[in-house]
Amino acid sequence: MNSDLLSKLNAAVEAGDLLSDSLANITEFLESDDPVYEAAVSELAESGEWSELNNRFFKKLAFGTGGLRGRSIGEIVTSAEQGSAPVGEGRPEFPCVGTASLNYYNITRATLGLVRHLVKSYQGEGRPSLAVARDTRYFGQEFADCVTKVAVENGCDVYIFPEPRSTPHLSFAIRHLGTTSGIVLTASHNPPHDNGFKAYSSDGSQIVEPEASQIIAEVSAVSGESYDVLPESEQGQVHELGADLDEAYMARLESLLLDPELVKEQADLKIVFTNIHGTGGTISPQMLRRLGFHCDTVAEQDIEDGAFPTVKSPNPENAAALQMGIDQAEATGADIVIGTDPDADRMGVVVRNAAGEMTLMTGNQIGSLMAYYRLLAFTEQGIINDSNRDHATLVKTFVTTELQQAIADHFNVPVVNTLTGFKYIGAKLRKYENAIPEALREDYRNLSDETTRELRLEHSKFFVFGGEESYGYLGTDFLRDKDANGAVVMFAEVAAYAKSKGMTPVELLNELYVRHGVYLEGQHAETLTGADGAAQIQKLAQSYIDNPPTEIDGVKVSHFRDYLNGDHVDEEGDAIPKEKMVFVDLEDGRAFAVRPSGTEPKIKYYIYYRPEPGTGGLEMPEELPSAKAIAQNAFDSLKEAIVSDMHARLA
């Protein structure tokens, strides 16, 4: 770093404009000889953009249990970063400079730490191996090239998709190929300026403890981008993946369809699918057509583009992201609109109700319908019966609707709750697989789904369905992360089933409300960005632990659960990892949970209206409209009280 820049930065620290941690990170970061780095920092310092510098350098982007996620394009793009790329026409030439940003510096550190862990712990023949995929985001190709280079030069084979592929496809590839680990480069449904790095274990699940801490320690020990390259004879090799693996994945997805004849009988069901410029178009529409569904796509959104140019946000839980699909459905008379996010691990739907109106469904509602249908179908087919139903299970997160508990209770099937994050559902699947006697689970990954289901029902737990309220679902164990491609198949079959009964999915959901009572869920997310925002989020989350509420919206708190400091076990007796999340139950059945997001600069509030304790379904279907109105009013009142309390805590 030149002396003039150092003097200016020191003066900014003295004046209180630049954090001392930011200066320390800038100093270490600029030990690299990349000219873009110092040029970008100098430009921001000369312009007095201290807030931008703090946001970029207030911390090192930490490798958490899920990997990394951060901005790859700064709020202010310097001319050094813009490089030769035309201004206003997409991404700059170079990613965002900063230790708190997603760039070559942090991609190198993360890959190097992961590979060093793999090499140290590898017990097989030859070399450890990585499966690598990327979605359609900015810098995805460059980051994939960086991952490949670092891995190969440090003694790891790489199996890479040269074209964008989804997160679940990557999870499947790890299991199908038997690689030691995997990496997918994605920021899910975040804005276009973000990207991320997610790491996976050898079973296709996201990394959990104790392996997570071992990898984090290796990544934390890496300071900078330089490393010693192994001799060529000790380096890894690169293998490209393509159509053969796509076909293998699609062949396994076929097993998610539980009643092929039902689909054939409802061939006039019309689906509009959109991948919202992401990876979902590679598999989902082909699967629907292959299984006999009528599927059209939104042509303008078929284009894979990290700018996501036709939407404000590529998040399929929002109606705005699906609007082009809705418009097309209105024009063509389609029954359903299905959308997937950029890495196709989340799915949202809009369905036509009995009155012909397009209705957006929540993640809780979508998941509840799929859980119900799969339990119903497996029961009617005799696969789940009185002799084995205690060996079947639903797995959901604590913050996912309790309607799924009521549905499972109806079928006398157990439910297991996990912390938020599909890695915990993946860990349960690993447990269920390992519980099968070793002699019977040889070559488990290559056995048919019917065979593994029989093994689990006899010796372990048959995973019927798993999901989280944030639009993530899984209906099988041949991969170990949420899968929008599979969810598309499962929900299309639900819609076909409803149509066979003369209903739409909305009316099918209403039947569940009549049977079990009205459940209503929603969220409030407070976004607090940058260094100051990160501190506020942690302070606010801690306030609920230090000063838990005793009454909200005029109703006493009946139960308070602190998952950071208390010791908790799940329904199977397994210890629940520590996490900064609290769950508050009220005496009237309503509830809310609070947790900082692990991937976005937000603190999230999950809000629930549930039937009062001791009550259940409705006596008459005609009571449903008034029951829904009561639920909505009580929900809105609770949300208003929670937000008011939040602002008081922030103040």
On the 0-100 scale, what is the average pLDDT?
95
Overall tally of structural domains: 3
Helix/sheet category: alpha/beta
Task: Give a quick account of the main beta sheet: strands, pairing sense, barrel closure.
Answer: 6 strands, mixed
Distance between the termini: 40 Å
What amount of the residues lies in strands?
Answer: 15-25%
Shape: globular
Q: Determine the CATH superfamily of the largest domain.
A: Alpha-D-Glucose-1,6-Bisphosphate, subunit A, domain 3
Give the neighbour order of strands across the main sheet. Answer: 1-5-4-2-3-6
CATH architecture descriptor name of the largest domain:
3-Layer(aba) Sandwich
Query: Helical proportion?
Result: 25-40%
Helix run count: 22
Tell me the total number of β-strands: 21
* Uncertain residue ranges: none
Just give the CATH class of the largest domain. Answer: Alpha Beta
